[in-house]
Specification:
homodimer, alpha/beta, Quinone Oxidoreductase, Chain A, domain 1, 7-stranded mixed beta sheet, 9 helices, globular
């Protein structure tokens, strides 16, 4: 029997546990050219909010009744293609389920870092790390000496951004929620400073932490946190729009201070980044990240939940800010 | 005697006639290294709003009591530098006055296009044309076949943007106010289509005029017009922030629909452009524009007012939308 988490109903806002259901079904037969995978780790991503929403987005919405779309780490247990052999470990779009019968097109890559934990393929050596690395370098274009400010600074993407910017010679400032995460930013992820968005006077705190202005703002949240950042942009600043986690929904569309004047006066740039556009650079990025992990320059945090029963509430928990690292389900 | 228009008081919002005064004074002596210019044409720019404002901007605010900052076309009538000779025609930062005693650093360029009207140095062959050309090509990066949408489409910058984009092989759509300007956009400036922002249903009209989405939005206005454009951005769209003419003031800071989600979902880019950053490309840009004027590919419109008495109300008149082309004062 194969257990799977399906999308049972489309949420208004963040998907809650009741929007999912765990169902059992017989194992599917394997067609020519397909592979059977047994999943070991399932990923939980903030971006799942968008994958589930029924409004225009950067990917097709997950259909009601179908297995929740997710990256997973799994092992080939049966193969009807010459390209993948039984026993190989892969990461790919295998979904929130025990066992996936897939075409090779769903595979992202082989896990070749046998000296490192396999779960990293879902975090620092996966979509989070690669997003951090490519979005920072391709859009943020940090130069040595730049001040790089990161929202969700202790999160799976943000913590990697801060550390990579540090490796590249930048001054790194984090924005995060609460004194515990502020300490984690500085002590674990090596930020030069971190500010607490839950404390009063965020704009003043950012200005004080970034006395030469913000050259690169790596943003995962939008909203009031970003509103406090924009006045501090330096000349020719780059704003990487990597996520909009502040808003559970864009219907009705949220309003806020207009950005055009900041961009004009500072000759600044804002640009959206979606990892799916950059898969050609994925393998070389993972190789770079793996080297930084091995050298100790890139620390990571994982938040591993146990068993498929943890899936339905796992996404809502992310948006409640419960996790202290990359959230993963271990089957 | 030298007549000059001084900034008499700092306006709240758009400067009105009463914020200026015309004063007379004796001609200044000429120091070693200086040049005396007799102005022929004075420029009136929407950007003067920013030059006068006392809030942070991209140039030092004009001081109360000093001559209003302006580009002008003038002739050298006396020179104490070997680099410029009596009789030469120049464009530079000579101010709203009859006669300017200046250092060579205030000179933008010699007017070398002796076959074309000298007033063009303030418009299509000046800051407006060069802004249109460089902002469109450097930030907008239009490709043949792209849809280029332009706000203030019949204005001094906008009309040049539309025509240059056409020369570069794009489909050009203008946004302008009223049926007369819509007709001017299509008949005079060669836009493929133009929409009237004063009519109802702007977002639908833009969507209908840009069925493949907007690849380049060249924006001079911000505000509600831009709000109607952002949902129509195509994948990887470029938004050129060249002006924010919709807002007479940014104090209090205006609010509107947030842009981050559009930029993320469409992997789009917004970037501010200020011509002063690009003076190294000025001369080559003017040469290109002059060729297009000579070949008839670049049409222009001028709105020439008579005499210094027209200066004090000329800027307010621009913001009332009175002009039908580049506004210039002829002395």
């Amino acid at each position: 029997m194969n257990r799977a988490v399906i999308l049972a109903s489309r949420p208004a806002g963040i998907a809650q546990a009741e929007n999912f259901a765990i169902v059992e079904s017989d194992s599917k037969p394997l067609a020519e050219g397909q592979i059977r995978i047994r999943n070991e780790y399932l990923s939980v991503e903030p971006a799942m909010r968008g994958w589930i929403a029924d409004v225009g987005n950067y990917s097709e919405p997950v259909a009601i009744g179908s297995v929740m779309r997710a990256l997973a780490v799994g092992q080939v247990i049966e193969s009807r293609t010459g390209d993948y052999q039984q026993g190989e470990w892969l990461i790919g779009w295998f979904g929130w389920q025990d066992e996936a019968v897939v075409d090779p097109a769903t595979i992202v890559r082989r896990i070749i870092e046998k000296d490192l934990p396999r779960s990293l393929a879902l975090g620092i050596l996966g979509i989070n790390g690669v997003t951090a690395h490519l979005a920072l370098t391709k859009i943020g274009k940090p130069e040595p000496g730049d001040t790089v400010l990161v929202s969700t600074a202790s999160g799976a993407v943000g913590s990697a951004v801060g550390q990579i910017a540090k490796v590249l010679g930048c001054t790194t400032i984090g924005i995060t929620g609460g004194p515990e995460k502020v300490a984690q930013c500085i002590e674990r992820f090596g930020y030069d400073d971190a500010v607490d968005y839950k404390a009063a006077g965020l704009e003043d705190a950012i200005a004080a932490a970034c006395p030469n202005g913000v050259n690169v703002y790596f943003d995962n949240v939008a909203g009031q946190i970003s509103d406090a950042v924009y006045p501090q942009l330096a000349l020719n600043a780059r704003v990487v729009i990597c996520g909009t986690a502040s808003f559970p929904t864009w219907d009705p569309w949220p309003i806020g201070p207009r950005v055009e004047r900041h961009l004009l006066v500072k000759r600044a740039r804002m640009e959206g980044f979606v990892i799916f556009d950059h898969m050609a650079n994925y393998e070389s990025s993972v190789a770079r990240l793996a080297d930084w992990v091995r050298s100790g320059q890139l620390q990571y945090a994982e938040d591993i939940l146990d068993g498929m029963e943890a899936c339905p509430d796992a996404l809502a928990g992310l948006y409640r800010g419960e996790n202290k690292g990359k959230r993963i389900i271990k089957l």
